[in-house]
């Protein structure tokens, strides 16, 4: 694989940032502040780490306009973390897979595979499927009948995309993920016996979506399960039938979303968040890790807890919970003082029982 190299002046142009320093320095990669070498560029996204620049060996640093006299050329960015990501993309190359179809792949004669697409060993592509330009299907990928995969997608080994599902351009799906499995749909009779509701819809995944390893995205009962443009999904996430996830939302590991949920745009779900069925979550809602959502949420809220509540309210509850042991001790001390006072007054109280709970009162 050819190593990618850029002059700092070229990087500044490609990243659309201003360069302060030697434009002819050659950079061959990106590294962290602590370990970046003389041919790498590093970044400073958080000012509290600025002191580390004194010992930094990097060729240059990506930072904001406040960085001056740090002894390194600076690529000045209003968002250093974003610029670092773009720089890393310039140096990144996906795992090697030559264009063409591997001899062991099973391609239906009724399927279309673009000439510059790459199909790895033991890949299956069903009838009526379409594989777009520059797309890579690594080994043991299964593509069902009628599946459409757009251009420049990366489908890693052991991904399964079942019949009729549609993927846009530049979609990335990591190993072990299943797209288009049946939704959990059953009807029960009077005796509690379950009968399957055929899941006849599809999954639609729009451009620039990335889905982590071992996720499951169920097909719709009818219609579509829809993951919209720019959504990023971590590993081990389950998305049930007929869910819609709005543009540029982020779902962290082990999120579980029940059927017919609608998420707005730019929603963020922390790890292990659970959402009950038929709930709507508004735009730009952020939900903390392990929270449970059982009702619809208005846009722009930050929620936390089980059941989820506004973050500030949850923090007040948590603070009170931490004080409970001290309050318990104080209550016991007050009870002792009252009893002592009553004894001193010569009228010791008779024990009584709380009829509801059996406590002394």
Automatic annotation (TrEMBL):
What Pfam family does this protein match (any one)? Hexapep
- Pathway as given in its UniProt record: Bacterial outer membrane biogenesis; LPS lipid A biosynthesis
- UniProt-listed GO biological process terms: lipid A biosynthetic process
Task: Write the Enzyme Commission number(s) for this entry.
Answer: 2.3.1.191
Positions of the UDP-3-O-[3-hydroxymyristoyl] glucosamine N-acyltransferase non-repeat region domain: 25-90
**How is this protein annotated for GO cellular component?**
membrane
Keyword Transferase carried by entry: yes
Tell me the keywords, alphabetical order.
Acyltransferase, Lipid A biosynthesis, Lipid biosynthesis, Lipid metabolism, Repeat, Transferase
The active site is formed by 241
Q: Which InterPro entries match?
A: Hexapep (IPR001451), Hexapep_transf_CS (IPR018357), LpxD (IPR007691), Trimer_LpxA-like_sf (IPR011004), UDP_GlcNAc_AcTrfase_non-rep (IPR020573)
Q: Which family does it belong to?
A: Belongs to the transferase hexapeptide repeat family. LpxD subfamily.
Subunit composition and interactions: Homotrimer.
Q: What is this protein called?
A: UDP-3-O-acylglucosamine N-acyltransferase
Organism, by scientific name, is Desulfosoma caldarium
């Amino acid at each position: 694989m050819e190593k990618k190299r850029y002059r700092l002046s070229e990087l500044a142009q490609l990243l659309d940032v201003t360069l302060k320093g030697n434009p002819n320095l050659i950079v061959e990669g990106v590294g962290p502040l602590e370990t970046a070498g003389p041919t790498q560029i590093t970044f400073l996204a958080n000012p509290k780490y600025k002191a580390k620049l004194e010992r930094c060996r990097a060729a240059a640093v990506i930072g904001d306009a406040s960085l001056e006299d740090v002894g390194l050329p600076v690529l000045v960015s209003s968002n250093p973390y974003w610029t670092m990501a773009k720089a890393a993309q310039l140096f990144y190359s996906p795992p090697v897979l030559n264009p063409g179809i591997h001899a062991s792949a099973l391609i239906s004669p009724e399927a279309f595979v673009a000439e510059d697409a790459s199909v790895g060993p033991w890949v299956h592509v069903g009838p009526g499927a379409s594989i777009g330009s520059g797309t890579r299907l690594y080994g043991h990928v299964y593509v069902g009948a009628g599946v459409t995969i757009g251009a420049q997608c990366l489908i890693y080994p052991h991904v399964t995309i079942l019949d009729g599902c549609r993927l846009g351009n530049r979609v990335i799906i990591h190993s072990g993920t299943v797209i288009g499995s049946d939704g959990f749909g059953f009807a029960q009779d009077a005796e509690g016996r379950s009968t399957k509701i055929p899941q006849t819809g599809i999954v639609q995944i729009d451009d620039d979506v990335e889905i982590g390893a071992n996720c499951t995205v169920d097909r719709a009962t009818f219609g579509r399960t829809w993951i919209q443009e720019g959504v990023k999904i971590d590993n081990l996430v389950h998305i049930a039938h007929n869910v819609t996830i709005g543009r540029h939302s982020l779902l962290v590991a082990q999120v579980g979303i029940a059927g017919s949920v609608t998420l707005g745009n730019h929603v963020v779900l922390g790890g292990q968040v659970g959402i009950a069925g038929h709930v709507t979550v508004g735009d730009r809602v952020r939900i903390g890790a392990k929270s449970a959502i059982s009702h619809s949420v208005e846009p722009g809220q930050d929620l936390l807890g089980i059941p989820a509540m506004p973050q500030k309210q949850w923090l007040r509850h948590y603070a009170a919970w931490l004080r409970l042991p001290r309050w318990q001790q104080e209550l016991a001390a007050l009870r002792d003082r009252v009893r002592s006072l009553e004894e001193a007054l010569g009228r010791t109280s008779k024990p009584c029982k709380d009829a509801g709970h059996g406590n002394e009162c």
